[in-house]
């Protein structure tokens, strides 16, 4: 039944431009699954996703409605850091302007103030999030469950040597019950949020397991581009191009999660 859920005239559907940032060097544990989920759910809501893969040196697209970036080892972070700094003012401006962004693990660390790796290298971050990260010998590894005020229970998998500490006033994504997991081994925070930016350690990939987070990002992107009338999600009607089959497919995906 491939394609059964596609709307007729999908080519005319309103576009949503997604930046997949550093897919070559920052994409471990299947973080690119987040891009697939956003793309598919946008289609099912009656939009036309346009994915721009942006690696080092690539020109920024004319239009960006959503930025997704994955995790990576310290070596991957060192490969992209100069390019990230070259884009820092742009990304800070877009974040300030309400652009939704999801940054996982290694990119979460670099969206903070700095990351001092376990070998003593200091990588300056771009300061979108009020957080800093220090590498430790003991990695935090394992499946994780956190409670988030906006998203309910969020699940995923973490594996990092960097321990992240939030500055006063920075909101975590959620709270973990076990001090030994999450941002660090000292408090119960996991992730960080500012405006529509979400930073988190959770791989999984995150969005297939937590469609409520995917819908938050999609809603923010679509509302910012098309205005309040174009909202998506279970509580509000999606775009006029959405069919009954598409609604059924969304329900099936949510059941799988
Ligand atoms: N290199 C970072 C760390 O280990 C991030 C790892 C990751 O993205 N999973 O802290």
UniProtKB/TrEMBL annotation:
GO BP terms: cell wall organization; cobalamin biosynthetic process; peptidoglycan biosynthetic process; regulation of cell shape
Binding of substrate, residues: 139
One Pfam family named in its UniProt record: GATase_3
Alphabetized InterPro entries for the sequence: Class_I_gatase-like (IPR029062), CobQ_GATase1 (IPR033949), GATase_3 (IPR011698), Lipid_II_synth_GatD (IPR043702)
Enzyme Commission number(s) from the entry: 6.3.5.13, 3.5.1.2
Keyword terms, alphabetized: Cell shape, Cell wall biogenesis/degradation, Glutamine amidotransferase, Hydrolase, Ligase, Peptidoglycan synthesis
Record's catalysed reaction(s): beta-D-GlcNAc-(1->4)-Mur2Ac(oyl-L-Ala-gamma-D-Glu-L-Lys-D-Ala-D-Ala)-di-trans,octa-cis-undecaprenyl diphosphate + L-glutamine + ATP + H2O = beta-D-GlcNAc-(1->4)-Mur2Ac(oyl-L-Ala-D-isoglutaminyl-L-Lys-D-Ala-D-Ala)-di-trans,octa-cis-undecaprenyl diphosphate + L-glutamate + ADP + phosphate + H(+); L-glutamine + H2O = L-glutamate + NH4(+)
UniProt KW Cell wall biogenesis/degradation keyword: yes
GO terms, molecular function: carbon-nitrogen ligase activity on lipid II; glutaminase activity
Domain of life: Bacteria
Self-association and partners: Forms a heterodimer with MurT.
Family statement: Belongs to the CobB/CobQ family. GatD subfamily.
Cited function: The lipid II isoglutaminyl synthase complex catalyzes the formation of alpha-D-isoglutamine in the cell wall lipid II stem peptide. The GatD subunit catalyzes the hydrolysis of glutamine to glutamate and ammonia. The resulting ammonia molecule is channeled to the active site of MurT.
Name by which UniProt lists this protein: Lipid II isoglutaminyl synthase (glutamine-hydrolyzing) subunit GatD
Gene name, Swiss-Prot/TrEMBL: gatD
């Amino acid at each position: 039944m491939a394609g059964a859920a596609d709307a007729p005239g999908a080519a005319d559907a309103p576009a949503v431009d997604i930046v997949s940032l550093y897919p070559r060097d920052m994409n471990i544990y299947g973080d690119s699954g987040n891009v697939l989920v956003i793309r598919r759910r946008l289609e099912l809501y009656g939009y036309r996703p346009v994915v721009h893969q942006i690696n080092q040196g690539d020109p920024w697209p004319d239009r960006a409605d959503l930025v997704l970036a994955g995790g990576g080892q310290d070596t991957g972070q060192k490969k992209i850091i100069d390019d990230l700094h070259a884009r820092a003012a742009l990304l800070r401006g877009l974040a300030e302007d309400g652009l939704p962004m999801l940054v996982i693990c290694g990119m979460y660390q670099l969206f903070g103030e700095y990351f001092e790796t376990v070998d003593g290298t200091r990588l300056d971050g771009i300061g979108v999030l009020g957080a800093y990260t220090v590498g430790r010998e003991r990695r935090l590894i394992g499946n994780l469950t956190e409670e988030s005020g906006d998203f309910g229970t969020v699940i995923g998998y973490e594996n990092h040597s960097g321990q992240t500490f939030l500055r006063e006033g920075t909101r975590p994504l959620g709270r973990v019950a076990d001090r030994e997991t999450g941002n660090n081994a000292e408090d119960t925070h996991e992730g960080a949020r500012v405006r529509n930016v979400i930073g988190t350690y959770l791989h999984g990939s995150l969005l297939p397991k937590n469609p409520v987070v995917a819908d938050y990002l999609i809603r923010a992107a679509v509302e910012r581009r098309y205005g309040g009338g174009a909202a998506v999600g279970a509580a509000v009607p999606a775009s006029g191009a959405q069919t009954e089959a598409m609604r059924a497919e969304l329900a099936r995906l949510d059941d799988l999660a």
